[in-house]
Write a structure and sequence with these properties.
- With 93 residues, the protein is of the alpha+beta class.
- 26% of the residues lie in helices and 38% in strands.
- It has a five-stranded mixed beta sheet with strand order 1-2-5-4-3, covered by helices on one side.
- It is globular.
- The model has no long low-confidence stretch (mean pLDDT 95).
């Protein structure tokens, strides 16, 4: 995992703690799942924090997982720090 990913994880963990439900690293991209009520706060932090700098929304999509009871619908954000060329994924169920 890259140094910038470590910084992202550290800042988000410090700010949201156990409100972050999962961390993953599929296909070389840091991904995390956060409680839905912290959606806007997490996006604002990712955008505004100068150490993070995720100011470009690459993709916003909805995903249907009919087999996942209690997690049937997900909103997935792909965010990009253009200066450091780093992408992350944020999921909300």
């Amino acid at each position: 995992m890259s140094t910038h990913y470590d910084t992202v994880r550290e800042i988000l963990s410090r700010q949201f703690g156990d409100r972050i439900l999962a961390w993953e690293f599929p296909y070389g991209m840091l991904s995390f799942t956060i409680q839905p009520e912290f959606n806007l706060k997490a996006l604002t932090l990712l955008y505004d924090d100068p150490d993070l700098g995720f100011q470009f929304l690459t993709d916003l999509t909805g995903v249907h997982y009919p087999e996942r009871e209690g997690q049937e619908l997900a909103v997935v954000y792909h965010l990009h720090n253009l200066v450091k060329n780093v992408r992350i994924r944020m999921k909300i169920y």
